[in-house]
């Protein structure tokens, strides 16, 4: 049996709901071997981010070289990259090791409002990273910052998706979780030609810490197994939907999603 390998380049979340921890749990649940390079350590729980400690650029470059020189990932994702300097190193190594199945989650701000990307680094995401992306997964505020447009209507989303594809990302998944004006969550997948809408009932919950990380990790895991982008996004959507629905209810703030839920449902252990 072939075991496919997925690699996450992201920040550590001590609370275990987002970042590296969410990515590795998701990889494991979806049956791929997980590897990681840590760009920053965050002291974090369901109440917020108490501290951010970027990893040294030397340590980041070495982690990327360790993977690149030996463990050939089948798909790679990026999460919290924090600074322009870190983005440049990551982009350089992605090109050097020819990592093509690349998912960019342009993480900017944690749910509680703490910055996870320095403002001056936004331009490097556009210049250095998006052109390398097979898929990018901005949420609505991130898409607004990347495109410098205000996104209110579905046609605004389509226009913003077009701009992000023009920036070089082959596919864009614009996540709709932040639009709380309806009882649906609407994600949009754009491949440069077709707009595909994915709609789900909005689950009423405060436990959405790490949804974006988990969703992009699930896309990465499925790409690692050889799924095409549409298939990978559809499976990831089912994964994130189950993990929000079957709440763990941990902590007194924004709790983590339930990374066990999707597989437990597949095995019939949780009734839908
Ligand atoms: N309350 C919710 N109910 C159902 N799906 C949600 C909910 N919140 C987010 N999602 C889904 O979770 C994924 C991540 O969404 P989003 O919150 O927009 O991104 P981020 O976590 O990066 O801020 C998307 O697929 C989105 O549709
Ligand atoms: C280390 C780290 N990376 C990313 C996020 C974003 O989390 P979310 O997916 O909830 O936006 C986070 N809170 N912490």
From TrEMBL:
<dbReference type="GO" id="GO:0008972">
    <property type="term" value="F:phosphomethylpyrimidine kinase activity"/>
</dbReference>
<keyword id="KW-0547">Nucleotide-binding</keyword>
<comment type="pathway">
    <text>Cofactor biosynthesis; thiamine diphosphate biosynthesis; 4-amino-2-methyl-5-diphosphomethylpyrimidine from 5-amino-1-(5-phospho-D-ribosyl)imidazole: step 3/3.</text>
</comment>
<keyword id="KW-0808">Transferase</keyword>
<comment type="similarity">
    <text>Belongs to the ThiD family.</text>
</comment>
<dbReference type="Pfam" id="PF08543">
    <property type="entry name" value="Phos_pyr_kin"/>
</dbReference>
<dbReference type="GO" id="GO:0005524">
    <property type="term" value="F:ATP binding"/>
</dbReference>
<keyword id="KW-0067">ATP-binding</keyword>
<dbReference type="InterPro" id="IPR013749">
    <property type="entry name" value="PM/HMP-P_kinase-1"/>
</dbReference>
<keyword id="KW-0784">Thiamine biosynthesis</keyword>
<dbReference type="InterPro" id="IPR004399">
    <property type="entry name" value="HMP/HMP-P_kinase_dom"/>
</dbReference>
<dbReference type="InterPro" id="IPR029056">
    <property type="entry name" value="Ribokinase-like"/>
</dbReference>
<keyword id="KW-0418">Kinase</keyword>
<dbReference type="GO" id="GO:0008902">
    <property type="term" value="F:hydroxymethylpyrimidine kinase activity"/>
</dbReference>
<feature type="domain" description="Pyridoxamine kinase/Phosphomethylpyrimidine kinase">
    <location>
        <begin position="13"/>
        <end position="258"/>
    </location>
</feature>
<dbReference type="GO" id="GO:0009228">
    <property type="term" value="P:thiamine biosynthetic process"/>
</dbReference>
<protein>
    <recommendedName>
        <fullName>Hydroxymethylpyrimidine/phosphomethylpyrimidine kinase</fullName>
        <ecNumber>2.7.1.49</ecNumber>
        <ecNumber>2.7.4.7</ecNumber>
    </recommendedName>
</protein>
<comment type="pathway">
    <text>Cofactor biosynthesis; thiamine diphosphate biosynthesis; 4-amino-2-methyl-5-diphosphomethylpyrimidine from 5-amino-1-(5-phospho-D-ribosyl)imidazole: step 2/3.</text>
</comment>
<dbReference type="GO" id="GO:0005829">
    <property type="term" value="C:cytosol"/>
</dbReference>
<feature type="region of interest" description="Disordered">
    <location>
        <begin position="251"/>
        <end position="272"/>
    </location>
</feature>
